[in-house]
Amino acid sequence: MKMDPTTSPRPINEYPLYWAECFGTAPFLPMSRAEMDALGWDSCDVILVTGDAYVDHPSFGMAVIGRLLEAQGFRVGIIAQPEWHSVEPYQALGKPNLCFGVTAGNMDSMINRYTADRKIRSDDAYSPDDIGGRRPDRCSIVYAQRCREAWNDVPILLGGIEASLRRIAHYDYWQDKVRRSILADARADLLLYGNAERALVEVAHRLARGDDIASITDVRGTAFFVKELPPDWTVIDSTNVDKPGRIEQPLDPYATVEPAACDAGGAAAAAEPAVRLDGKLARIEQRLARRGRTVVRLPSFDMVTRDPVLYAHASRVLHLETNPYNARALVQNQGGRKVWLNPPPIPLSTEEMDYVFGLDYARVPHPGYGDARIPAYEMIRFSVNIMRGCFGGCTFCSITEHEGRIIQSRSEDSILREIEQIRDKVPGFTGVISDLGGPTANMYRLACKSKTIEAACRRPSCVYPGICDNLDTDHAPLIELYRKARGLDGIKKVLISSGLRYDLAVESPAYVEELVTHHVGGYLKIAPEHTEDGPLEKMMKPGIGSYDRFKALFDKFSRKAGKEQYLIPYFIAAHPGTTDEDMMNLALWLKRNGFRADQVQNFYPSPMATATAMYHSGRNPLRRVRRASGEVHSPKGEKQRRLHKAFLRYHDPANWPLLRDALRALGRDDLIGYGKQHLVPPRQPRNAGDYRSPRRKNSERRKPRKGRLLTQHTGLPPRE
């Protein structure tokens, strides 16, 4: 194995094309032998198996991967949402020459199928006509096993968010236990985690030149099983929670670059690389090159299964090894075999991002679906993804774990070209772009001011507990993009629907004014998530004061533009670290501000998220984990989770009996009554299900007043 984090990766658009490029670009990647025959193919080089319907659009992972491989010269077929009770659907396109690529799709199949209360959903936004049940539970595992049955000697590559978040031993919320790496259950040869374009192109070309899949062990962003550790590597033993192994004196698995250390190198960074850095940053920089042959041994599957404290410790170590410029390889024993994780892939450059998003997508579902409606496509067909990644580090979210915290942005020209393609090619376009965004709305082109500091940093977030002094928060490129986008011929309006990082937005009042004046369609959704410091600290989210500052700017610029516009805040119930009193205070804040939440969501423990480690282990991996560390309370029982959800819907009479009991238990009988200062009334109305307060009846007859709008959590299930 060879790993050199200082080596610049080969651009994905500079590989020599595979011989099959002579077949050109297919109108749609074939889903049947008849389509293959029409294209003149006798076989596929790669067959992709996905849990989503095939929509040939850059917001759908399989379309991106398929078109990327096609652009490299390979013949790519797609098997979408195959029946899984027999092997025949996996043989429909014949035997692939190089490999199978297997994914659950854009969403984790368990989150797609079950609610946060483990109830089965009847719908599936990624399936034709929104029909649920078109894929099995943990479908990556099932699909991979069927591919193995179909063609035992064909390599199987596992990818997508479901595999990415299960690459090591992980807590499974639905079974309430720790499961081993998905590689073991799926019987796959190689797991590609994160946005895997760089790794996939490298692996595909190496398979095409005849390399054995077992010999491909040096590609970043991949995981695989090894029998023994390479003898020439330095192994850092981090299997004992109270004695973490030394990494390089004086660093350990928990080492981070504090803001003060970054500041010490700030002046030198401005003139890099000519000036030699001093202090801690320089010592770390000198050792980065030596990390290429160092592997950190995580506590084994058996250890983290038996000991939740070790699970939290392993989670902390893993999350500190996510910066691709300083991360070490990780290894974890999985019952006799060892799963090896190479460091994350180097992020795509702007040129590479343009290449990926500029491929020849049809931008519509495969014609085989006829008139069937695919809700996920309806939601994004007029939207444009302008960037990837998120440096927010919210503990309940898996975006950072999957896409990384280094922002990868497209060029302005590439984005504008895509808008013109939507205008000219997509059926039903009315002149309104529904979104310019990505994981967040306003991290486009935001990055660390120094590449040297960025390469050394191990902080999980650039904006918590406050915005790092070394983060460039200039929104000017995004403002300019907005102006050019709405200035294109045929474009009537450009809306922003992606989640807004409002603590960053307030750093640029000019951006807030641009957004509010031109790009809000009456309502803007933002996510404070909570009002109380306890849960916010466990979430790594800013205090409610940041929301207040943003709201002041939002209201000011709305008035200046002569528009009546409203903020729609999102909140999470039952998050680790949340007490009943925290939820009561949140409910009081909602009532004071006139919000009535329509649909609300309890915390959903997704695999590998830091908050999930808190939920399972009762420890806080954001700090050094010790046996004596204070425990983190997580609302787990059905009654308490229902109570926390009820606090967010304090106005619903069905919740009043539960809330009255809780308020009395908290010693807050003063909040029970009929006054404005009360949270719930002392008595239940006769027809609670049909009850509407006189104030609400009157408000429904009138135009909604500012602050009286319903907050809504509608649309797709939450993204990971």
In brief:
The chain has about 725 residues and is α/β, with parallel strands linked by helices. It folds into four domains: about 20-225, Response regulator (Rossmann fold); about 230-335, no CATH class; about 380-505 and about 515-520, Transcription Regulator spoIIAA (2-Layer Sandwich); about 520-720, Transcription Regulator spoIIAA. Helices cover about 35% and strands about 10% of the residues.
List the helices and strands and how they pair.
Layout: H1 33-39, E1 46-50, H2 61-71, E2 76-80, E3 99-103, H3 109-113, H4 139-150, E4 156-158, H5 160-164, E5 170-172, E6 177-179, H6 182-186, E7 190-192, H7 197-208, E8 222-226, E9 234-237, H8 259-264, H9 266-270, H10 279-288, E10 294-297, H11 301-306, H12 308-320, E11 329-333, E12 338-341, H13 350-357, H14 375-380, E13 383-385, E14 387-388, H15 399-403, E15 408-409, H16 412-425, E16 432-433, E17 435-437, E18 447-448, H17 451-456, E19 471-472, H18 476-486, E20 493-494, H19 502-505, H20 509-518, E21 523-529, H21 533-539, H22 544-561, E22 566-573, H23 580-592, E23 596-597, E24 601-602, H24 610-617, H25 638-648, H26 656-665, H27 694-701, E25 710-711
Parallel strand pairs: 1-2, 1-3, 3-4, 4-7, 9-10, 10-11, 13-17, 16-20, 21-22, 22-24, 23-25
Antiparallel strand pairs: 5-6, 7-8, 8-12, 11-12, 14-15, 18-19
Helix pairs in contact: 12-24, 18-20, 20-22, 23-25
